[in-house]
Amino acid sequence: MVTVNSLSGGKSSSYIAANYPADYNVFALVRTNDKSCLYPDEKLRQVVSDKIGMEFIGTLEQDNIIKVMLDLEQFIGKEITWLSPKTFDEVINNPSITGKNGKQYLPNMMTRYCTTEMKIKPIFKWWQKVINEIVEMRIGFRANEQSRAKSMIKKTNKNGNSVLKTIIGKSKTGNRNKWGEVEWQKPVFPLIKDAIFKDNIVEYWKDKPVRFAWMNNCVGCFHKSPMLLKKMWEKHPTKLEWFAKRERESINGATWRSDVTYDQVKSWNSQFELFDEDFDECDSGYCGL
Fold first, then answer.
1. What does residue 188 show for φ and ψ, rounded to 5 degrees?
2. Cβ(257)–Cβ(251) under 8 Å?
3. Which of 18, 105, 188, 198 has its CB 3.0 to 4.6 Å from that of 100, i.e. a possible disulfide?
Protein backbone atom coordinates (compact mmCIF):
# COMPACT_ATOMS: atom_id res chain seq x y z
CA MET A 1 0.00 0.00 0.00
CA VAL A 2 1.26 3.50 -0.86
CA THR A 3 2.23 5.47 2.25
CA VAL A 4 1.68 9.18 2.88
CA ASN A 5 2.88 11.29 5.80
CA SER A 6 0.40 14.05 6.61
CA LEU A 7 2.45 17.02 7.86
CA SER A 8 1.27 20.03 9.84
CA GLY A 9 4.59 21.73 10.57
CA GLY A 10 4.54 20.65 14.21
CA LYS A 11 7.19 18.55 15.90
CA SER A 12 5.07 15.39 16.06
CA SER A 13 4.21 15.05 12.38
CA SER A 14 7.74 16.18 11.51
CA TYR A 15 9.06 13.38 13.72
CA ILE A 16 7.05 10.95 11.60
CA ALA A 17 8.51 12.42 8.40
CA ALA A 18 12.03 11.97 9.81
CA ASN A 19 11.60 8.49 11.29
CA TYR A 20 8.92 6.79 9.20
CA PRO A 21 9.87 7.30 5.53
CA ALA A 22 6.87 7.34 3.21
CA ASP A 23 6.24 7.38 -0.50
CA TYR A 24 4.90 10.93 -0.17
CA ASN A 25 5.05 13.76 2.37
CA VAL A 26 2.17 16.25 2.07
CA PHE A 27 1.63 19.65 3.68
CA ALA A 28 -1.46 21.88 3.25
CA LEU A 29 -0.73 25.57 3.91
CA VAL A 30 -3.39 28.05 5.05
CA ARG A 31 -3.03 31.20 2.97
CA THR A 32 -4.59 34.66 2.84
CA ASN A 33 -4.67 37.18 0.01
CA ASP A 34 -4.87 40.06 2.53
CA LYS A 35 -1.72 42.15 2.00
CA SER A 36 -1.78 43.34 5.60
CA CYS A 37 -0.55 39.80 6.36
CA LEU A 38 2.21 39.98 3.73
CA TYR A 39 4.99 37.48 4.33
CA PRO A 40 8.06 39.68 5.01
CA ASP A 41 10.70 37.80 3.01
CA GLU A 42 10.23 38.45 -0.72
CA LYS A 43 12.57 35.64 -1.79
CA LEU A 44 10.78 33.06 0.37
CA ARG A 45 7.43 34.33 -0.92
CA GLN A 46 8.62 33.40 -4.38
CA VAL A 47 9.87 29.99 -3.18
CA VAL A 48 6.43 29.22 -1.74
CA SER A 49 4.69 30.57 -4.86
CA ASP A 50 6.74 28.16 -6.96
CA LYS A 51 5.90 25.25 -4.66
CA ILE A 52 2.14 25.80 -4.64
CA GLY A 53 1.90 26.94 -8.27
CA MET A 54 0.20 30.26 -7.51
CA GLU A 55 0.94 33.59 -5.87
CA PHE A 56 1.75 33.44 -2.18
CA ILE A 57 0.98 36.64 -0.26
CA GLY A 58 0.84 35.48 3.32
CA THR A 59 -0.30 32.82 5.74
CA LEU A 60 -2.66 32.85 8.73
CA GLU A 61 -0.38 30.36 10.40
CA GLN A 62 2.79 31.65 12.07
CA ASP A 63 5.17 33.01 9.44
CA ASN A 64 7.86 30.69 10.74
CA ILE A 65 5.89 27.71 9.40
CA ILE A 66 7.48 28.43 6.01
CA LYS A 67 11.00 28.00 7.38
CA VAL A 68 9.94 24.90 9.32
CA MET A 69 8.76 23.11 6.19
CA LEU A 70 11.75 24.16 4.10
CA ASP A 71 14.12 23.08 6.89
CA LEU A 72 12.30 19.77 7.27
CA GLU A 73 12.51 19.06 3.56
CA GLN A 74 16.28 19.55 3.69
CA PHE A 75 16.58 17.48 6.86
CA ILE A 76 14.72 14.41 5.59
CA GLY A 77 16.27 14.71 2.13
CA LYS A 78 12.97 14.17 0.37
CA GLU A 79 10.51 16.42 -1.40
CA ILE A 80 7.48 17.67 0.50
CA THR A 81 4.38 18.32 -1.60
CA TRP A 82 2.89 21.72 -0.71
CA LEU A 83 -0.83 22.25 -1.35
CA SER A 84 -2.91 25.43 -1.05
CA PRO A 85 -5.51 25.81 -3.81
CA LYS A 86 -7.75 28.29 -1.96
CA THR A 87 -7.07 31.14 0.45
CA PHE A 88 -9.04 31.42 3.69
CA ASP A 89 -10.60 34.61 2.26
CA GLU A 90 -11.90 32.70 -0.76
CA VAL A 91 -13.28 29.89 1.38
CA ILE A 92 -15.37 32.01 3.75
CA ASN A 93 -16.74 34.19 0.94
CA ASN A 94 -17.91 31.28 -1.23
CA PRO A 95 -21.68 30.70 -0.73
CA SER A 96 -21.44 27.18 -2.14
CA ILE A 97 -19.09 26.34 0.76
CA THR A 98 -20.72 28.27 3.59
CA GLY A 99 -24.15 26.95 2.64
CA LYS A 100 -26.21 29.68 4.31
CA ASN A 101 -28.32 31.10 1.46
CA GLY A 102 -25.45 33.17 0.17
CA LYS A 103 -24.73 34.77 3.54
CA GLN A 104 -21.31 34.62 5.12
CA TYR A 105 -21.18 31.82 7.68
CA LEU A 106 -17.90 31.60 9.54
CA PRO A 107 -16.60 28.15 10.47
CA ASN A 108 -16.90 27.30 14.16
CA MET A 109 -16.66 24.39 16.56
CA MET A 110 -19.89 22.87 15.23
CA THR A 111 -19.20 23.44 11.53
CA ARG A 112 -15.47 23.22 10.92
CA TYR A 113 -15.54 23.57 7.14
CA CYS A 114 -12.23 25.47 7.15
CA THR A 115 -10.37 22.24 7.96
CA THR A 116 -12.28 20.40 5.26
CA GLU A 117 -11.71 23.04 2.57
CA MET A 118 -8.08 23.95 3.32
CA LYS A 119 -6.62 20.72 4.69
CA ILE A 120 -8.63 17.62 3.79
CA LYS A 121 -9.98 18.45 0.33
CA PRO A 122 -6.67 19.73 -1.10
CA ILE A 123 -4.96 16.50 -0.01
CA PHE A 124 -7.87 14.42 -1.34
CA LYS A 125 -7.78 16.15 -4.74
CA TRP A 126 -4.00 15.74 -4.92
CA TRP A 127 -4.49 12.05 -4.04
CA GLN A 128 -7.08 11.64 -6.83
CA LYS A 129 -4.71 13.15 -9.38
CA VAL A 130 -1.47 11.47 -8.29
CA ILE A 131 -2.37 8.15 -6.61
CA ASN A 132 -6.10 7.32 -6.78
CA GLU A 133 -5.91 4.15 -4.69
CA ILE A 134 -6.33 3.68 -0.96
CA VAL A 135 -3.24 4.83 0.90
CA GLU A 136 -1.86 4.41 4.39
CA MET A 137 -2.04 7.91 5.87
CA ARG A 138 0.29 8.47 8.83
CA ILE A 139 -1.17 10.88 11.41
CA GLY A 140 0.98 12.52 14.10
CA PHE A 141 -1.06 11.77 17.21
CA ARG A 142 1.23 10.96 20.14
CA ALA A 143 0.94 8.02 22.54
CA ASN A 144 -1.07 10.09 25.02
CA GLU A 145 -3.56 11.18 22.32
CA GLN A 146 -5.36 7.89 21.83
CA SER A 147 -8.74 9.57 22.26
CA ARG A 148 -8.08 11.70 19.16
CA ALA A 149 -7.13 8.59 17.21
CA LYS A 150 -10.28 6.78 18.36
CA SER A 151 -12.41 9.73 17.27
CA MET A 152 -10.86 9.57 13.81
CA ILE A 153 -11.27 5.81 13.59
CA LYS A 154 -14.98 6.13 14.46
CA LYS A 155 -15.43 8.15 11.28
CA THR A 156 -13.99 5.42 9.05
CA ASN A 157 -16.10 2.78 7.30
CA LYS A 158 -16.28 -0.95 7.99
CA ASN A 159 -13.00 -1.43 6.11
CA GLY A 160 -11.22 1.04 8.38
CA ASN A 161 -10.92 3.57 5.57
CA SER A 162 -11.86 7.25 5.48
CA VAL A 163 -14.39 8.24 2.85
CA LEU A 164 -15.12 11.61 1.28
CA LYS A 165 -18.29 12.65 -0.51
CA THR A 166 -17.34 14.04 -3.90
CA ILE A 167 -18.43 14.30 -7.52
CA ILE A 168 -17.97 10.91 -9.22
CA GLY A 169 -19.53 11.66 -12.59
CA LYS A 170 -22.61 13.04 -14.29
CA SER A 171 -26.27 12.07 -14.20
CA LYS A 172 -27.74 10.09 -17.10
CA THR A 173 -28.93 13.31 -18.71
CA GLY A 174 -25.56 14.94 -18.18
CA ASN A 175 -27.19 18.00 -16.64
CA ARG A 176 -26.26 17.36 -13.01
CA ASN A 177 -23.26 16.14 -11.08
CA LYS A 178 -23.42 12.65 -9.63
CA TRP A 179 -22.18 12.45 -6.05
CA GLY A 180 -20.84 9.48 -4.16
CA GLU A 181 -18.51 8.46 -1.33
CA VAL A 182 -14.94 7.56 -2.22
CA GLU A 183 -12.68 5.46 0.01
CA TRP A 184 -9.26 7.05 -0.09
CA GLN A 185 -7.11 6.60 3.01
CA LYS A 186 -6.55 4.32 5.96
CA PRO A 187 -5.41 6.43 8.94
CA VAL A 188 -2.61 4.92 11.03
CA PHE A 189 -0.87 6.27 14.11
CA PRO A 190 2.79 5.20 14.32
CA LEU A 191 3.55 7.30 17.40
CA ILE A 192 0.78 5.58 19.34
CA LYS A 193 1.81 2.16 18.04
CA ASP A 194 5.43 2.71 19.10
CA ALA A 195 4.63 4.50 22.39
CA ILE A 196 6.24 7.81 21.39
CA PHE A 197 5.37 10.60 23.83
CA LYS A 198 5.92 14.36 23.70
CA ASP A 199 9.16 14.20 25.73
CA ASN A 200 10.61 11.69 23.24
CA ILE A 201 9.84 14.05 20.39
CA VAL A 202 11.15 17.18 22.12
CA GLU A 203 14.39 15.38 22.95
CA TYR A 204 14.78 14.17 19.37
CA TRP A 205 14.55 17.68 17.88
CA LYS A 206 16.91 19.37 20.38
CA ASP A 207 20.00 19.29 18.17
CA LYS A 208 18.35 19.14 14.74
CA PRO A 209 18.45 22.01 12.17
CA VAL A 210 14.71 22.60 11.96
CA ARG A 211 13.46 26.00 13.16
CA PHE A 212 10.06 25.11 14.57
CA ALA A 213 7.32 27.64 15.12
CA TRP A 214 5.96 28.04 18.64
CA MET A 215 2.65 26.50 17.51
CA ASN A 216 1.35 25.26 14.19
CA ASN A 217 -2.11 25.73 12.66
CA CYS A 218 -3.93 29.07 12.25
CA VAL A 219 -2.94 31.61 14.88
CA GLY A 220 -6.61 32.60 15.27
CA CYS A 221 -8.08 29.09 15.31
CA PHE A 222 -11.39 29.09 17.22
CA HIS A 223 -10.33 25.86 18.95
CA LYS A 224 -7.73 27.83 20.87
CA SER A 225 -8.81 28.93 24.33
CA PRO A 226 -9.69 32.64 24.77
CA MET A 227 -6.60 32.99 26.96
CA LEU A 228 -4.42 31.62 24.18
CA LEU A 229 -6.14 33.86 21.63
CA LYS A 230 -5.23 36.81 23.83
CA LYS A 231 -1.62 35.64 23.70
CA MET A 232 -1.89 35.42 19.92
CA TRP A 233 -3.21 38.99 19.78
CA GLU A 234 0.01 40.02 21.53
CA LYS A 235 2.28 37.95 19.28
CA HIS A 236 0.49 38.29 15.93
CA PRO A 237 -1.76 41.40 16.02
CA THR A 238 -2.03 41.77 12.22
CA LYS A 239 -3.17 38.18 11.74
CA LEU A 240 -5.64 38.31 14.65
CA GLU A 241 -7.01 41.53 13.16
CA TRP A 242 -7.84 39.48 10.06
CA PHE A 243 -10.00 37.15 12.18
CA ALA A 244 -11.63 40.04 14.09
CA LYS A 245 -12.38 41.89 10.86
CA ARG A 246 -14.23 38.87 9.44
CA GLU A 247 -16.58 39.02 12.44
CA ARG A 248 -17.10 42.79 12.11
CA GLU A 249 -17.89 42.56 8.40
CA SER A 250 -20.22 39.57 8.65
CA ILE A 251 -23.64 40.61 7.35
CA ASN A 252 -25.50 38.16 9.57
CA GLY A 253 -23.61 38.50 12.84
CA ALA A 254 -21.48 35.41 12.29
CA THR A 255 -18.71 34.80 14.84
CA TRP A 256 -15.94 32.25 15.21
CA ARG A 257 -17.00 31.35 18.74
CA SER A 258 -20.34 31.50 20.58
CA ASP A 259 -18.92 32.77 23.86
CA VAL A 260 -16.74 35.74 22.91
CA THR A 261 -15.76 37.84 19.89
CA TYR A 262 -12.16 38.36 18.88
CA ASP A 263 -12.42 42.11 19.52
CA GLN A 264 -13.56 41.34 23.06
CA VAL A 265 -10.56 39.05 23.55
CA LYS A 266 -8.25 41.82 22.31
CA SER A 267 -9.61 44.26 24.88
CA TRP A 268 -9.03 41.95 27.82
CA ASN A 269 -6.56 43.12 30.42
CA SER A 270 -4.38 40.17 31.33
CA GLN A 271 -4.29 39.59 35.07
CA PHE A 272 -0.79 38.19 34.75
CA GLU A 273 1.87 37.92 32.10
CA LEU A 274 1.30 35.04 29.73
CA PHE A 275 4.33 32.95 28.86
CA ASP A 276 4.72 30.60 25.92
CA GLU A 277 5.22 27.65 28.23
CA ASP A 278 1.81 28.28 29.80
CA PHE A 279 0.28 26.59 26.77
CA ASP A 280 0.57 23.09 25.41
CA GLU A 281 0.38 21.88 21.81
CA CYS A 282 -3.06 20.47 22.56
CA ASP A 283 -4.30 24.09 22.64
CA SER A 284 -3.10 24.75 19.11
CA GLY A 285 -6.09 23.50 17.14
CA TYR A 286 -7.36 20.37 15.41
CA CYS A 287 -6.35 20.58 11.77
CA GLY A 288 -5.01 17.05 11.34
CA LEU A 289 -6.70 14.62 9.00
1. -130, 160
2. no
3. 105
